[in-house]
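Exercise 7b. Backbone tokens:
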């Protein structure tokens, strides 16, 4: 196989294109997160209903991930990712013209379907095209791009909402994403080690069932479910206590609070490189511990310690996601990597949707201490799952 090495010019093109693809995908996907409390006030809906602006598209994304690998085999890796980015950008612009919360949620549902084409294929593309000696660091760079994307979407929305409206904010975001999509189409190298093929759908379903039933891969999928669910649960509802007494943060200040996600660039890159030389079981245990420490700090009333806790929590999330996503790529059979990656993301976004949505009821019933206690339990379960799989085996 003709792999892309670090010394090649194409290597930098891959990294930049993947960064921009991540920015489009994750800025659009998570842009409403700092506005959940705004939706509650403007439309008179509960926190759980308002959080549907996040949980609904992630649920649609998760379901779509079952079919994207099949389409990519017929259409091609790069083409699927490029179409995904273009359609997502256009839908973001359309969402700016929402006349009701129901219509906005409908567009968000469509965005969940459209964005699935990028994350479902990006990991498989990197595993196929980048040299195995560099895949840990490259995967870390890709996950770092998800941190940048989430940061840009959340932070840009806050000030634009305060200055104009959330509709104007989504229009600007969509137009910027469209420009990023153009770069991606022209500069991402085409696949060298993948050829399109017309695989029968029944054969694809057989392969999907085989990978889903893997006793070594299933615990890793579940880790992704728990890590992502915990992360979204905290970030979905942190705006409620911070915009009330005694803090009274504005939407701009709340949006900029998400700058803490940028430490995910350091966390994901560092843990990606560590995974090339150290036990993933130990790295996941360390990530779970960082999660717990960060969540604990948010229980302290001092605002600066809360912000520190959120930053530590975000660091732990990107560490855990990088470790688990890379673990899937290593543990999956060579001819099942794309399918295994899609199943990992299926569980990952199901965690975002289900746990993130359920967090609204925990927040209403048990307040912040109940929500943090839930994160403790999820991280304990996540660490326990590391003992049900191994470092390199397949099955």
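Sequence design result:
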């Amino acid at each position: 196989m003709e792999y892309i090495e670090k010394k090649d010019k194409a290597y930098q093109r891959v990294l930049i294109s993947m960064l921009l693809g991540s920015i489009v995908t994750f800025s659009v996907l998570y842009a409403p997160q700092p506005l959940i409390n705004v939706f509650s006030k403007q439309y008179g809906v509960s926190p759980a209903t308002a959080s549907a602006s996040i949980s609904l598209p992630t649920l649609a994304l998760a379901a779509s991930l079952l079919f994207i690998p099949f389409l990519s085999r017929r259409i091609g890796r790069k083409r699927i990712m490029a179409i995904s980015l273009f359609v997502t950008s256009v839908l973001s612009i359309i969402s700016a013209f929402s006349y009701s919360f129901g219509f906005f949620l409908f567009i968000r549902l469509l965005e969940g379907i459209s964005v699935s084409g990028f994350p479902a294929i990006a990991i498989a593309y990197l595993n196929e095209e980048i040299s195995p000696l560099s895949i840990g660091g490259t995967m870390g760079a890709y996950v770092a791009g998800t941190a940048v994307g989430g940061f840009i979407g959340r932070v840009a929305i806050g000030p634009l909402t305060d200055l104009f409206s959330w509709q104007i904010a989504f229009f600007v975001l969509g137009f910027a994403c469209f420009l990023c999509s153009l770069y991606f189409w022209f500069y991402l190298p085409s696949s060298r080690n993948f050829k399109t093929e017309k695989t029968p759908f029944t054969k694809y379903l057989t392969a999907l069932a085989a990978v889903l039933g893997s006793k070594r891969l299933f615990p890793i999928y579940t880790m992704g479910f728990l890590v992502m669910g915990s992360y979204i649960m905290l970030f979905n509802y942190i705006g409620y206590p911070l915009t009330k007494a005694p803090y009274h943060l504005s939407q701009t200040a709340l949006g900029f609070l998400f700058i803490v996600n940028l430490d995910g660039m350091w966390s994901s890159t560092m843990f990606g490189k560590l995974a090339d030389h150290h036990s993933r079981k130990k790295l996941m245990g360390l990530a779970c511990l960082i999660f717990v420490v960060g969540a604990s700090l948010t229980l302290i009333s001092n605002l600066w310690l809360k912000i520190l806790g959120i930053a530590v929590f975000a660091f732990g999330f990107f560490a855990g996601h990088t470790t688990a996503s890379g673990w899937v790529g290593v543990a999956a059979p060579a001819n099942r990597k794309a399918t295994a990656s899609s199943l990992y993301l299926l569980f990952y976004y199901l965690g975002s949707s289900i746990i993130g949505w359920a967090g609204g009821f925990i927040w209403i019933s048990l307040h912040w201490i109940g929500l943090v206690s839930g994160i403790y339990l999820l991280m304990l379960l996540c660490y326990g799952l590391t003992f049900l799989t191994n470092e390199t085996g397949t099955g």
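Instructor comment: Residues 337-385 form the longest helix (49 residues). Residues 79 and 395 are 31 Å apart (CA to CA).
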